[in-house]
Amino acid sequence: MQSLALGGMAAGFGLRPLRAAESPEVLSGSEFDLSIGGIDVDFGNGRRAATAVNGRLPAPLLRWREGDVVTLRVRNTLPTTSSIHWHGILLPASMDGVPGFSFDGIAPGETFTYRFPVKQSGTYWYHSHSRFQEQTGLYGAIVIEPRDGEAHRADRDYVVLLSDWTDNNPEHIYATLKKQSNYYNRARPTFAEKMRSGNGMWNRMRMDPSDLADVGGYAYTYLMNGAAPAANWAAAFSRGEKVRLRFINGSSMSFFDVRIPGLSMKVVAADGQPVEPVSVDEFRIGAAETYDVIVEPDERAYTIFAQSMDRSGYARGTLTPRAGLTADVPALDAPQRLRMGDMMGQMSHHGMQMKGMEGSCGASMSTLRTGPGVDMTVPTPRSNLDDPGVGLRDNGRHVLTYADLRSTAPVGDAKPDRSITLHLTGNMDRYVWSFDAMKFSDAKPLRFENGERVRITLINDTMMTHPIHLHGMWSDVENADGEFQVRKHTVVVQPAQTLSYRITAGPAGRWAYHCHLLYHMEAGMFREVVVA
Amino acid sequence: MRFAIGVVTLFTACSALADEVNMDAMQMNDDAHFGMLKFDQLEHAWAPGNGVDWNADAWYGGDFDKVWLRSEGEHSDGRLDARTELFWNHAFANFWDWQLGARHDSGLGATRDWAAFGVQGLAPYGFEVEATAYASDQSRTAMRLRTEYEMLITQQLVLQPELETNFYGKSDRAPDIASGLSDAQFALRLRYEIRREFAPYVGVVWTRRFADGARDDTQLVAGVRFWF
Known about the structure:
With about 525 residues, chain A is mainly beta. In chain A, about 10% of the residues lie in helices and about 35% in strands.
């Protein structure tokens, strides 16, 4: 028998959202009534206004069943237009919830009814696609029960939804980044470090090796299922039980590095899709990604520790056999600096020789130049998937990489009919972000024929890590040899990395394609995809 | 100062507007305009010539095109000496903008108006550079070069060296101007960022003037750097 709970034993610790109205944390079935509205929350620094669903932050966990047709009546009680996007869900474009593409958004006082068949199973999430409402709290988990039951049995089943709460107005954060893009970086290299490191290249290139997150702990309180670290969200288990933890990164701007000291985690699904089980000590989860892991704890408490990539803070909870029992909370790791390879790609390995380049890497050389919106390009990006990323390299733990993820079914095998290449571009100093040096407002839509198989090659010409999300379609990630590796809905591309995935275009309609770092998306790292 | 206060008021308004941008419209606005006012220096200077000096920039606009106002000057012994510049600021390279506009000198000496063209940006190794050339209707020419650098001692304690030089095409007796290199100023300011937007500082400023025989001044300064 599986139990599914979100709240665990968090009640009674304080430092949690002040509920406008008590409503269930979990809603299941095929008919749902959701009401978007404002609530007050207090995460330790006084009351702030948040955006919630049914008075809850996070929004209620929705449980669907594969094969059902779900109906979701979403009422908007905000004074502004709102929307809900079902992240990673295959559905008609008109149900995707992106204002301007799918529909006009949900006007104040109006109700929009979403209705679509559920064609998949696994862990997903939903969030607002309107301006910064996601940052102010409009996100919740979706768990879809497989038609044939879970492939991996577990005695307990918990959603662990990570997010980044800010007491500031997100409009103010965005404006601040436009004025001083390193404002929230509190770990910049000092002059002494610059002299000591002797790494002239960074200074010559006017790049900052400490630029790991645009917004960090100075502005954020990291939450686990809506609980601040002091509130210690807790999940119960009994001796000998297997526990499934469904990790969802519902944050606006944060990557989390997740581990449970003392426990090995068996990763069984990525972005809702089953993968060959792989046991790891730690994994990095990008904004909008999900990972299901199964753990087998001994009869003691464990800390679920999710530190932000820039090491400016953490979300934390407890896995415990008895209420009130806690485990040590590890210290934050020291922040690592970006390496030469994060700026130069392969070149840093091959000196200034440009050998080992092939196909798409070579093609990238001619097309893109630096300019007002592009502060750097990577002449020879690297294509390996087995780099855990800055901050996780050589940390003595077994850290998950995309190279470890293999979809169990041969779902993404179909070969592409054609290929396109897109550069992830930006100018950190000006806080401008784009694909191919063109902001959304300057770019034409990408056009795909309904049903065609397309290989999208992304080349990250920035020093930031970007989680790229294509709405409505799977992204079937290829390995460096061009073979199908893993099916995802959100693909993390590391600095100076090139990565390819295949999509089957469809269904017909207008779809969003963007970086899932919210402020990057709002700054223009966004494209429309038209399938016709 | 009245001018500066006016600018402050204007840009507070602009900044408030920018923060309100587009909460209603559900589409993204990746061309939103923002405004910023930054007093890099607002300081009291001691001997010789007690007074208040300032150096401020204000801009409003999008990512690549901005209206840019720059004001600097000093107020000492009841006399105001100010230089105000208004530019169209256009980004033309990854770290560089050009600036096209006008400069107005007021206060000490003759009031002058200049056409101005310059570049500003971030040079390799992180030097902030401004280089501006001027021409007036009386066929006068001038050029100013300014560069500064930020040395983080800690995340909040910042040492900022700054070098400024002014060149003029011909001498101008009244406002203390010599032809060629007219004056050079090197300053070191040590600030403590209570917030990134608000930092009191102390510093020392060496000035060499070349008009009517070289003169050196050394001034101690204390002030506040702030922006919003």
